[in-house]
Specification:
By secondary structure, the protein is an alpha+beta fold. The chain has helices at 6-16, 20-42, 45-71, 145-149, 157-164; strands spanning 77-84, 87-91, 96-100, 104-111, 121-127, 130-136, 139-140, 170-176.
C-alpha cells in the first residue's frame, strides 16, 4: 500500500519515468556550469567554451526530454504494436493489420472524452493498401510510433502534443502525403 496518490505517481513517471536520462542531463549541466564558472574566474577561454557547449547540450537534452514526456502516456489498452523495417503491425483481440510507411497517405490522431480510465487517444493510419488502421496510443509498443513517424517529411509535432493533451472528442491531422504516391519496386 502506497501513501502517494496514484495521480502523483503517474505524473512523476510521465516526466521522470527513466531515472537515467534526467540524472545524465543533470550531471552534464552541473559539470558544464562548473567549467563555465571556473573558466570565467581564471579567464580561461577553453573552459568557457566547453562550459557553454555543455550548457547548450543540456538545454537541447532538456527540450528533447520535455517533448517526449508530453507525448508519453502511462495507461494500457489491448493490443500490441510491432515496428520492423518501415512496417507497423497492430494486433488486438478484435482487430489488427499491417501498414507500410511507404503506403501511408495520412496520419490522424483521434481523441475521445472517455479517458483517463479507457483508451481515449488513437493513431489512425490511412494507407493505400486497405481501410484505415486505428491504434490506441496506450497499446503495448505504441510509444515507438512517433519514432517511426519521424521518417515522414513534414510531421507536425505541435499537433501531436496538442492531440495528446486533448480531453475532448476531436481529430488532429498530423501528417499528409504531399507528393503523389508511387511505390518503389
Amino acid at each position: 500500500m502506497s501513501f502517494i496518490r496514484p495521480e502523483v505517481t503517474a505524473l512523476f513517471h510521465r516526466w521522470f519515468g527513466h531515472w537515467s536520462e534526467p540524472l545524465i542531463i543533470l550531471g552534464i549541466g552541473a559539470i558544464s556550469l562548473s567549467l563555465l564558472i571556473e573558466g570565467l574566474s581564471r579567464n580561461a577561454a577553453g573552459r568557457i567554451a566547453l562550459g557553454l557547449l555543455g550548457l547548450g547540450l543540456t538545454c537541447l537534452l532538456i527540450w528533447s526530454h520535455w517533448r517526449r514526456a508530453l507525448m508519453r502516456r502511462e495507461t494500457s489498452a489491448p493490443g500490441v504494436v510491432e515496428i520492423t523495417e518501415r512496417r507497423i503491425a497492430y494486433f488486438s483481440p478484435t482487430i489488427g493489420g499491417v501498414v507500410a510507411l511507404d503506403d501511408l497517405t495520412e496520419i490522424d490522431i483521434k481523441t475521445t472524452a472517455d479517458g483517463p480510465f479507457a483508451p481515449d487517444v488513437f493513431w489512425v493510419l490511412h494507407h493505400t493498401a486497405g481501410p484505415p488502421l486505428a491504434i490506441p496510443s496506450e497499446a503495448t509498443g505504441a510509444n515507438g510510433l512517433i519514432d517511426a513517424f519521424t521518417a515522414l517529411p513534414g510531421l507536425d509535432f505541435g499537433r501531436v502534443i496538442e492531440a495528446m493533451g486533448s480531453t475532448e472528442a476531436n481529430s488532429f491531422v498530423i501528417w499528409r502525403r504531399t507528393i503523389p504516391h508511387r511505390r518503389l519496386s
